[in-house]
Amino acid sequence: MSSNYHSNTLESQDIDCAMDPTKIAYFIHPTTKEKCNVLHIHYLDCTMCHSHKTYLYILDNGQSVHYCECIEGGGQWVFSSKQLRV
Questions:
Q1: Would 46 be classed as within a structural domain?
Q2: What's the pTM value of the predicted model, to 2 decimals?
Q3: Is the pLDDT of residue 51 over 70?
């Protein structure tokens, strides 16, 4: 499941540059196409594979999202509707 994400400072996804993950302001949900604002960001062990650290984004639609680099194809964004304990 892929997703669009947006930063307060980066408007174009055509720019090839490193992005600060703490500056992501919202995600576009891959299924509903709903804009989901980031409320909180936590840095913790990946909840999928537990083999790396990742950022967990708590969204205003009640979901959370994080990036797992171990999922097929070099990694994917993972949306979850259950509230994860941090």
A1: yes
A2: 0.74
A3: yes
